[in-house]
Amino acid sequence: MMGGFFAPELKYAGYDKLIIRGKSPDLVYLWIHDDKVEIRDAAHLKGKGSLESAEMIRTELDDPKVQIASIGLAGENRVWFASIEQGRSSASRGGIGAVMGDKGLKAIAVRGTNDVNVARPAELIEMCNEVMRYIKHREENPIPGVMPILAGLGSPQEMAIHDEKWHTENFAWGNSRTRRKGFWTEEVEEEWTDTMRSMRTRLVSCHNCPMKCGATISVPGLPTYMMKCFSKLTYTMAAMSNLEFGLRIAQSATEYGVDAFTAPQVMAFALELYEAGILTDDDFPGMPSDNEERFFWLLDRIVRREGIGDLLANGTHWAAEQIGNGAQEYAHNNIKKHEQLPLKLGMLNPIYFLMYATGEKINITQIEGNYPQAPFATREEREEFCKDWVQVPDEKFKEYFLNWELRGEYSIPHYPGIEATCEIVNWQEQMHYIDDATGMCAGLSSFPLKPPYHIHNLPTFISNATGMELDEEGLTQIAKRIRNLVRAFNIRRGMRKKDEKPPADHWKRRFPDLEEELLTEYYRFKGWNEQGIPTSESLHELSLDFVADDFLERGILQDEG
After folding, report:
1. Given CB 3.0 to 4.6 Å as the disulfide criterion, which of 131, 358, 383, 384 pairs with 452?
2. SS3 of 106, please?
C-alpha cells in the first residue's frame, strides 16, 4: 500500500485495481491512458533508478501529469526487500518490488482524464467537510501527554518535528543492539535541526490531503527525493552516524528502490558479522575503511547482487542461514523472518506483544493503532482523554484505559487483562485491515489516536461513495474475512505458532507463561486452533468454506466428521 498520487490517477483512468499476471521475457513498462492500455519496451530503462526511470517515461510520453510506480536496480535483481517507488510514496515492506522485477515489469505509468462518479455526492461531500473541520481542530489542539509525533494526525510527523530524543534514545542503534541513553544533547539537536532545515525543501502531502506528512529532500549534488516517517533515522542509526549521512544515503536507496527499514539493518548485520570474524576480508574485497563509505559500498553490492551482496539481498534471516558459523544469532531482530523496528523496551506490554507476534503484513505502522501505547500519568488526564473519544467501538474500551496505571496492580504486564487485551488488539487490527481494503490512509484512520475516520463513520462513507448499503456489522464482517484470507495464505506457506514471537530482546523483562496464555486466548478469540490456523467452523461462519476445503485437502486441518 502506498500514498501519493498514483491510486487517484488510476481511478480517474477508470480502474479500481490492477492485476498483473504472467511474466515478460524482456523488460517492459505498462502505459495506461484511460481505456488505452499498452505494454511498451523498457530496455532503455534497464539499470536506471526508480525516480530516474519515472522522469524518463514522463519525457517519453510528453506529459508531466503522468503518475508512475517504478522499481530500481533492487527490483530488477529481485532483492527480497526491494520497493516500488512512486514519487511521494512507496510500497516497501515484504519485497513487492522484487515481484515486479520477476515479472520483467519496470514501471506502470497511468494518466486518467475521466470523472469519478459517486452514489450520493451531496452526502459524501458533507461528510468530507466534517472530516476537514475535525482535522483543523486537531491541528490546533494536539493531544497532550504523548510524544510529539503522535500528538497529531497523519503519518508520524518526522519531517516537521526536530525533537528526536525519544527515537534516538529508545530505539537501538547499529544492528538493533545499542541503546544510547543521553545521546540527545543540545548540541546534537542543534546540528540535526540545521541539517534538516537545510535539506528539507518543503513539506508535501498526498492527493487532496491537508496533511503534510512527507518532505522533499535535496542533498547538495544529488537529485531531490521524497521522505516520510521513521526512514529519516533508519540509516543514521544503523551506521551509528548523523542525520546528514542518513539523508544522503537515503537518496541512493530510494533510487535503487529498497525498503528503508530492512536495508539499513541488513548492512549493519553484515558489518557486525565482519567485526565478529564470521565474515572476513575475503568476503568484502575492496570495501572502504570508512564506516559511512562501507554502507554505500554494501548498498551497491546488495542491489547488484554482487559478491556478499548476493546473500545479503535475501535479508538477515536467509543470509544467516546460508552463511552459518553462528551467523543466526546476529539475525536477532526478526519476526516471521523479516526485520522489524529496532525498538528495545523494558517491560513486556501485552497489547503490543500480540500486535507484534500475530501481525502478518510486516507493515511497521500496523503494529500500532488507536489505543494509547502507554497509560497517562493521572486518572484526571485519562478522564480528559476519554471525554471526546468517540472512535472506540464500545464504551468498555474507555474503562480499560481509565483503569490503566503506570505501576501497581493495574499496570503492565498483567494489565490490561487477557480478555481486554484480545479485544483491544482485535479492534486495532480490524481498523488496519479496513484501511487496506478501502485504500484509506492509515495516518487518518487506523494509526493515530482519535482519527477522523473510524468504525462508526466509515460504513456511511463507503455507502455514500459506492451505493453499497453497509453498516458497522457488515464492515466488521468484511474485515474478518480479509484477515482470515491473509492468514490462510501464510498458513499454506507453513506459518505456525512457533513463528509468532517478537525478537527475544524486544523487551528486557519477558514473561513466557503470560505470553503463551496471551497467544492461546487470542487464537481462541479469533476462531483459530492451537497452531493459529482458522478452524473449519470459523471459516464457514465467514463463508470461506473453500479455504477450509483447501486446508483439509492439504492436511493442514483434519476432517472432524
Report:
1. 131
2. strand
